[in-house]
Amino acid sequence: MFERFTKDARAVVQGAVEHAEAVGAGTVEPEHLLLALLDREGSRASFALAALGAGEHRDAVRRELRDARRRAGLSQAETEALAGLGVDVGEIVARVEEAHGVGALSADDRKGVRRWSGHRSFSRGAKEVLEKSLRVAVARRDRHIGDEHLLLALVLRPGVPAEVLADHGVTHESLTRVLGNGGGQACA
């Protein structure tokens, strides 16, 4: 599948690995793919993000992703659902961090833990994004998988990256409008 990736898409995958390594994560997560997409300039995905105004909010998106990691990867919707059941995630995070330090619930913020700096595997979620990017490219009748397909795949997959992007006006519909529909159908 990677032979079908454009130079920009390969740079995003490599950037995601670098983001995972920078925080000591054991695996590359969908959030790392989003962070790598935010780093890109001069590509179709960066154009789309800028056109939708998300380029101006890169720091806010990064902050929201960091906050989600502190909540053990729970999205805001999941946090609100738990609140409806009487579970205060903020209070749990505060108590755990009081006892074990800031970021204790974050899988990729393990202070003092040395990790092997070789090959990083991709989590199930990150693999789903990569696979979905292929399906998106095929549905759009594109021969190659570009970084825009990775971005489209991220917004189609439920989770923190899609929620954070939607909060900043980046949805499948808005991306399709900016990028053009490519002649294909939406790929869920």
TrEMBL record:
SUPFAM superfamilies: Double Clp-N motif. Coiled coil: none annotated. One of its GO terms (molecular function) is peptidase activity. Keywords: Hydrolase, Protease, Repeat. Residues 2-185 form the Clp R domain. One of its GO terms (biological process) is proteolysis. It holds the Pfam family Clp_N. InterPro entries: Clp_N_dom_sf, Clp_R_N. This is Clp protease N-terminal domain-containing protein.
